[in-house]
Design a protein that fits this description.
The protein is of the alpha/beta class. The chain has helices spanning 2-14, 17-39, 68-86, 94-100, 126-129, 165-172, 191-194, 205-214, 264-285, 303-324, 330-333, 336-346, 362-373, 402-411; strands at 54-64, 101-111, 115-124, 145-147, 150-153, 156-158, 182-183, 219-229, 236-244, 249-258, 351-359, 378-385, 390-398, 415-419, 422-426.
């Protein structure tokens, strides 16, 4: 009797189902929390709006006045004059110079009872000041460049995963007067998952094209900051490297030093200005231009050229069929040209279809795109959903029926499943 009473309890203690189930639940909750934390939270830094005005920064002033406000006004007037001289402006009265300034940017300031010490930035209106500087209001700029600032510290490379001073320096810099059109992501939401340091080492053109289309950019620039502290709170040595393009090509590098952690933001701001000079020089020399291989897959033949190619292929097929017939049987040679040439002439209607392609990795995604675009009769392809490790969705325009497109894909080795105005393909 005692054994029958204690047996159920022994069975519960011996069974691993309860602790295993609890461990699985805890793991699932942990993964869900990690994914939620990865895309949520206060991580993004919105970039300042770029204007075409002429910005001059890093103007140091030290003025005295009757009181604090008087000292500040004198400091701003001195900053306007110094900034105007820095950009090579002609000699004009202070009253006129004040009318050319659209705003004063306070980078750092210290106020005393009768003294004003600050580092200021001065922004001149391009339309009003451009004529005096020998430059018009319009300026040629580069193609839109997706900007991915990489910060390396302590052996870890980050981009938008967490807020950092390097991302802030690029977000808050005014690039209105630059010749490079920087497209600066905010880093919020899914951007922290998509734009990581690992992305800079990818070489897949199709993958890069998808990301660049997401941000309406033509190419990518990668400014890298490698910061090393000599000791905690002590001097910081920064090694900066400018790269660009889907192949992560090297442009230039330089080194800067900040005497303390408090001086780090100022050093990073100067580094951003130096990067802008490097990229503008590369733009002037022709090095900084959109990679042509990013758009090679989008090149389409004109309908006239495609019709000529199809007609030539049909003629070759007809000649081969005629040669295979018995030369003593003239009746068998007559119908061959008419039966072979007629199908291309009838393929005049276009069909828009959805294709679901199995893309377990980036190589499979590239293969799907190139394979579909290689089908004769495809006149347009748009990727509506990219899922590396899953199923990607595309919309295609085909000069023919759905069954003809399915047959063409099967001839390339694809396994094709037909649905209602849709195809599912896999290898």
């Amino acid at each position: 009797m005692s054994n029958s009473q204690t047996f159920p309890y022994r069975h519960l203690r011996a069974s691993p189902a309860v602790p295993a189930l609890a461990a699985i639940l805890l793991l699932a909750l942990g993964l869900a929390a990690a994914l939620w934390a990865q895309v949520e939270g206060d991580r993004g830094i919105a970039p300042v709006a770029s204007s075409t005005d002429i910005a001059v920064g890093g103007i140091d002033v030290d003025t005295k006045g009757d009181d604090a406000e008087d000292a500040r006004l004198k400091g701003w007037a001195q900053a306007r004059r110094l900034a105007w001289e820095k950009i090579g402006g002609p000699d004009i009265p202070d009253s006129r110079l004040e009318g050319l300034v659209s705003s004063i940017v306070i980078e750092r300031e210290q106020l005393g009872p009768r003294r004003y010490v600050a580092r200021l930035g001065v922004i001149f209106d391009r339309q009003r000041a451009g004529g005096l500087l020998g430059a018009g209001g319009q300026r040629a700029r580069s193609a839109p460049m997706l900007t991915l600032p990489v910060l390396k510290t302590g052996g870890t490379a980050t981009m938008f995963e967490v807020r950092n001073d390097w991302q802030r320096a690029w977000a808050e810099h005014q690039f209105g007067s630059s010749g490079v059109d920087y497209v600066r992501p905010t880093g919020v939401g899914g951007e922290s998952l998509l734009l990581t340091y690992g992305q800079t080492s990818r070489r897949s053109r199709a993958w890069w094209s998808t990301i660049l289309d997401e941000f309406s950019a033509a190419d990518v620039v990668v400014p890298i900051a490698d910061l090393r502290w000599e000791w905690p709170g002590g001097p910081v040595v920064g090694r900066f490297t400018a790269r660009h393009g889907p192949d992560n090509l090297y442009l230039d590098s330089f080194t800067m030093r900040a005497e303390s952690t408090d001086a780090l933001p100022e050093m990073l701001e100067r580094a951003v200005q130096r990067f802008d000079q490097i990229y503008n020089a590369a733009l002037a020399s022709g090095k900084l231009r959109p990679d042509p291989t990013l758009t090679l897959d989008d090149v389409e033949l004109s309908p006239e050229i495609r019709a000529l190619i199809e007609a030539a292929q049909a003629s070759e097929a007809a000649a081969a069929q005629a040669a295979a017939l018995d030369p003593l049987d003239p009746a068998g040679m007559a119908p061959a040209p008419t039966t072979t040439i007629s199908p291309p002439a009838q393929a005049s209607t276009s069909t828009t279809l959805t294709i679901q392609a199995s893309t377990p990795d980036a190589r499979a995604f590239d293969g799907a795109l190139s394979g579909i675009r290689g089908v004769s009769g495809i006149s347009g392809l748009a990727v509506t959903s990219t899922a590396i490790g899953g199923t990607s969705v595309m919309r295609v325009t085909f000069a023919g029926s759905q069954s003809e497109l399915a047959a063409a894909l099967r001839s390339q080795g694809w396994q094709v499943t037909e649905g209602s105005n849709a195809l599912a393909i896999s290898r």
